[in-house]
Amino acid sequence: MKAAAFAYARATSVVNALELLAAHGDRAKVLSGGQSLMPAMNLRLLSPDILVDIGGLAELRGIAVSGRALVVGALTRHVDLLRSPEIALHAPLLRDAVAHVAHPAIRNRGTIGGSLAHADPASELPACVVALDATIVVRGPAGERRIAATEFFRGIYETALSSDELLVAVEMPVAGHDASFFFQEFARRHGDYAVVGLAARAVVAAGRFSDLRLGFFAVGDRPLLASAAGKLIDAPVTPALLAEATTALADELDPQEDQQASPAMRRHLAGVLLRRCVAALLARPELEAGATR
Amino acid sequence: MSAPVPVSLLVNGEPIDGLVLPRLNLADFLRENLKLTGTHVGCEHGVCGACTVRIDGEIVRSCLMLTIQAQGTSVETIEGLSDNGEIADLQAAFRERNALQCGYCTPGMLMTAQDLLKHPSVPDRQTIREHLSGNYCRCTGYQAIVDAVEATARKRAERRA
What is B5-81's CATH number, 3.40.50.2300, 3.10.20.30, 3.40.190.10, 3.40.190.290? Predict the structure, then answer.
């Protein structure tokens, strides 16, 4: 199908975009890369009165390191994340995740800000920013607001953004030299939406986790920072402890049923990913064994 | 509301000025307004890849882009790449290997394959499959398409050597 009729405004600056959003409120949608918005409009799931196109705002582009923070502009595209030496060095989790996002032609247009603001619970980047303990930087009529990624996602396609605010950047701590990362997802085919996925950041010292953040996606209405990780921190990880953590994970998940998977299947696959993740990060392949049973 | 807006862009090197409704996507602009019907429209939500074109040298889905978003850009379609001979060898390989039947996916396949073949290294079959994974073909079962892309990559590498 084709999108329903709408008016179009090309924002000339962030200030101008905010004025347009203030004037049109809920009747406006922000257009960046359009790789989620356009399908929704073509399918007539959305029909905004006006699109505010921020695609030309150079001030929202780019990746920079400022002190201990990596700052990624909202209009940074998936392909930019994939190719950026700064991302490879300071947030390799994002690079690993983007390789699973759709296909090259989509990654050439889709943006990190668009993906986060869209908040599809099955998409990769929201779980990554939760795992990376990122801060979402938002600008509105009253100025700038900084929202922890763990507080930003509120439900399916729901975030802490209000209709007169614009997501302008994502900030995350640069990876320490002792940090390690894990990204894997189950999908019907590579590039499809995940059935279940896991984005993780860890610090391993002397064979133990001194930090472990597990960002699961497609297991509920928003990305989940799993509390079960706590069981594995500062403890010798035995198969018994890992089994205990896997049970705790299954208890805290609230997966949806859809045509791809039942809740039971999603709980099972999340456990498989947890074991693979722990085995990989601790370089102890025997811990994954439970995955095949 | 939703009045026509002016747009200026290059299409296959030719300057185009138009007046379009905001809702007109780039695929429909190319097909309906410019009669460049080589760009095909399949799913209209970014899944099938039949509408793939190049904007400023990068492949995109023209069904997921508004015409007005192409303001000031350089758009290249299958007509452009065919006429200038850029993909003559790839087209010959498709013909030789029977890498098409109905032909609906072929323009998008060629655009996407050429995007991979622009890189100097010879891709393995897994890389070819991965790069073409966003383009659906309902006739061939893909084997022949991967064969044709692989054969073209080898021939180009030989020519460079």
Answer: 3.10.20.30
Residue type, A182: F
Q: Which positions in chain B touch A5 (Cβ < 8 Å)?
A: 1-2, 21-23
How far is the C-alpha of A45 from the C-alpha of A39, rounded, in Å?
A: 9
Q: What is the largest CA-CA distance in chain A?
A: 61
- For residue A262, the Cα-to-chain-centroid distance in whole angstroms is 22
Tell me the domain boundaries of chain B. 5-81, 87-160
Contact A277, A213 (CB under 8 A): no
Check residue A293 and give its pLDDT.
43
Q: Report chain B residues touching chain A, CB-CB < 8 A.
A: 1-3, 5, 21-23, 25, 28, 44-46, 49, 52, 58-61, 63-66, 68-69, 71, 112, 115, 130-131, 133-135
Residue A139, SS3 per DSSP: strand
8 Å CB contact of B134 and A191: yes
Average pLDDT over residues A129-152: 98
In angstroms, rounded to a whole number, what is the distance separating the alpha carbons of residues A176 and A203? 9
Residues in chain B: 161
Q: Nearest-CA distance from A266 to chain B in Å?
A: 24
For residue A176, tell me if it sits in a domain: no
Among candidate residues B58, B31, B27, the one with its CA nearest the CA of residue A105: B58
Amino acid at the residue A111: T
Q: Would you call A109 and B133 a contact, using CB atoms and an 8 Å cutoff?
A: no
The secondary structure element, H or E, covering residue B115 is helix B106-117
- The superfamily (CATH) of domain B87-160 is [2Fe-2S]-binding domain (1.10.150.120)
Handedness of CA A113, A117, A119, A120 (dihedral sign): negative
Question: Can you tell me the ipTM of this complex?
Answer: 0.95
Low-confidence ranges of chain B (pLDDT < 50): none
Q: What integer pLDDT is reported at residue A290 of this predicted model? A: 63
Count the Cβ atoms, other than its own, within 10 Å of residue B138.
Answer: 11
Would you call A230 helix, strand, or coil by DSSP?
helix
Q: Name which of B1, B61, B77, B112 to mutate to probe chain A: the one with the most chain A Cβ atoms within 10 A of its Cβ.
A: B61
